[in-house]
Design goal:
257 residues; alpha/beta; Metallo-beta-lactamase, Chain A; 8 helices; 26% helix; 27% strand; globular
């Protein structure tokens, strides 16, 4: 059974008690797949029993700080655990997909100034997501769709993605940040078992109506904005009216498929 763990559940807010910026990890068949890397991702993952040495891939939706602020910590801790355990990552490498690879160049430059020059026993394979199916192994198949949360780069490259995640007989969608609900029409397609949808930029009611009309079986709100964080009674009313199961994510939440 696949398990999604919410490592960070809020948008790019100021620091909040018990809530950190967006990050989710999928555990499937003994491997970990990260979706975004908010600032506290590695702390929540490690202290709640996620074995980081079994991480196979990290998928970043876009390069805003509240989605990549913990990326350095993830790799630093992987290296530390390999050193302490006198071992390597389970696969000897980790794949990192992010829209703007130059961002990783700067992050890695900082890591090289940490202890030991950040000499790690594992390889870090960096690439950009490609529209369509761009990653596949025995556990998951990832398909990338353009999000219009950010404009194209100067050379026309896409800077923001949503991801459809296929696992055996289940399918999930991670929205990343989106401009409007139309951004998810193609990603959700004829439906999905789980929609992890940001509400940092959208009304809860609109997301619920979209999920109902697009055959989503379960909806989980992630990347909470002010509407959820400061107006829980009205949000709960909208959730209660939704015709499908809806959950409001919190840090440490487990979702099984």
């Amino acid at each position: 059974m696949a398990r999604f763990k919410i490592l960070g559940s809020c948008s790019g807010t100021e620091p909040m008690i018990d809530r950190h910026h967006t990050s989710i990890v999928l555990e499937e068949n003994g491997r970990n797949y990260f979706f975004d890397a908010g600032e506290n991702a590695v702390h929540t993952a490690h202290t709640q029993g996620i074995d980081l040495t079994r991480t196979r891939a990290i998928f970043i939706s876009h390069s805003h700080y509240d989605h990549i602020g913990g990326l350095m910590g993830i790799f630093w801790t992987m290296r530390k655990l390999c050193h302490l355990r006198k071992t390597n990552l389970a696969d000897g490498e980790v794949k990192l997909f992010l829209p703007e690879t130059k961002v990783w160049d700067h992050i890695f430059e900082v890591l090289k100034h940490t202890e030991g020059g950040f000499k790690q026993p594992f390889d870090i394979l960096v690439d950009t997501p490609k529209l369509g199916t761009f990653y596949e192994d025995e556990n998951v198949e990832l398909t990338a769709y353009e999000s219009h949360h950010l404009p194209l780069s100067g050379d026309g490259s896409i800077r923001s993605f949503s991801y459809r995640i296929k696992m055996r007989d289940k399918t999930a969608v991670f929205s990343g940040d989106i401009k409007d609900m139309d951004d998810l029409t193609e990603t959700v397609g004829e439906g999905c078992d789980l929609l992890l949808c940001e509400t940092g930029h959208h009304e809860v009611k609109a997301v619920c109506e979209f999920a109902e009309s697009h055959h989503v079986k379960q909806l989980v709100f992630v990347h909470h904005g002010r509407e959820i964080l400061e107006n829980r009674p009205s949000v709960q009313e909208a959730v209660d009216r939704c015709k499908i199961p809806v959950k409001l994510a919190f840090d440490g939440m487990d979702i099984e498929l």
